[in-house]
Amino acid sequence: MAAIKTENLEKELRSLIAEIIEVEEEKITLDASFVEDLGMDSMMALEILAAIEKKYKLRIPEEHLTKITNLKQVVNTTKEFFGKK
Amino acid sequence: MKLNIEDIKQILPQREPFLFIDEVLEFEEGKKVVAIKNITGKEDFFKGHFPGNPIMPGVLIIEAMAQAAIILASTILPKEEGKKYIYYLAKSNIRFLKPVFPKAKLKLVVEPLKIISGAGIVKTEAYIEDEIVARGEISFGRKEE
Questions:
Q1: How far off is chain B from A41, nearest CA to CA, in Å?
Q2: I want to staple A34 with a disulfide (CB 3.0 to 4.6 A). Which of A40, A61, B41, B118 is the partner?
Q3: Banded pLDDT at A2 (limits 50, 70, 90)
Q4: Residue A43 and residue B116: Cβ atoms within 8 Å?
Q5: Membrane spanning segments where (chain B) (predicted)?
Q6: pLDDT tens digits, B12-71
Q7: Residue A32, burial from CB neighbour count under 10 angstroms (0-12, 13-18, 19+)
Q8: Whether residue B109 has pLDDT greater than 70
Q9: Which residues, in sequence order, are bridge partners of residue A23?
């Protein structure tokens, strides 16, 4: 699934994350820390991972949960698993 | 595989009057749990919810779903000998479709969406006969006691 552009993916993921963390999309910059700046907890991180899996029909193993730290990392991780699809 | 009340008590830490699973009809490791709670009408909460018009509170349907989720999680999450675990509800997103009245067999179906070592998200549905009465998702965590 190489067709999806990074900027579109970024936009989609920002919206998905905003809904789970319950913050405005504008606050989710590429580098804003989900935990320190946006108040994410560990259950929300799991929900983000599960929502990405569902939306893009991916399977992302548990060890990648630690990469749910900011939008840039989430975009990169999601792209990595698109490649493995 | 089926589980009786004694098997269930080995898995669930809850006890009467807060045990909301009476039997497990299907117990497919890591994939699915189908459980039953018999609603007799003698439960204490019916006295107040509502006087003369007994309806099972939605929050207790969520509780029954969450207990079925623990049974499912117990088949997936690793257990260490001698350790006890407590489960906590992190989030519930349930839509209630029909009211549940006394003298019903509430059937709870739970399937995993994502379960990791100390937490999980499950998809769940509740039925009376074959009619769906509630459905949604539940997130929960597990800690050592």
A1: 10
A2: A40
A3: low
A4: no
A5: 55-77
A6: 999 999 999 999 999 998 899 999 999 999 999 999 999 999 999 999 999 999 999 999
A7: middle
A8: yes
A9: none
* Alpha-carbon span B62 to B110, nearest angstrom: 12
- Asked if residues B105 and B38 have their Cβ atoms less than 8 Å apart, the reply is yes
Residue carrying structure tokens 């509170």:
B57
Beta strand segments in A1-85, E: none
Q: A23 and chain B: CB distance < 8 Å anywhere?
A: no
Q: Which domains does chain B have, with CATH numbers?
A: 5-144 (3.10.129.10)
Cβ contacts (< 8 Å) between A22 and chain B: which residues? none
Phi-psi region of B5 (alpha: psi -120 to 50; beta: other; left: phi over 0): alpha
- A28 has a chain B CB within 8 A of its CB: no
B118 min Cα distance to partner chain A (Å)? 10
Residue of A nearest to B120 (CA): A46
d(CA B61, CA B135): 10
Distances (CA, A) of B29 to A10, B63, B143: 36, 21, 21
Q: Is B45 a catalytic residue?
A: no
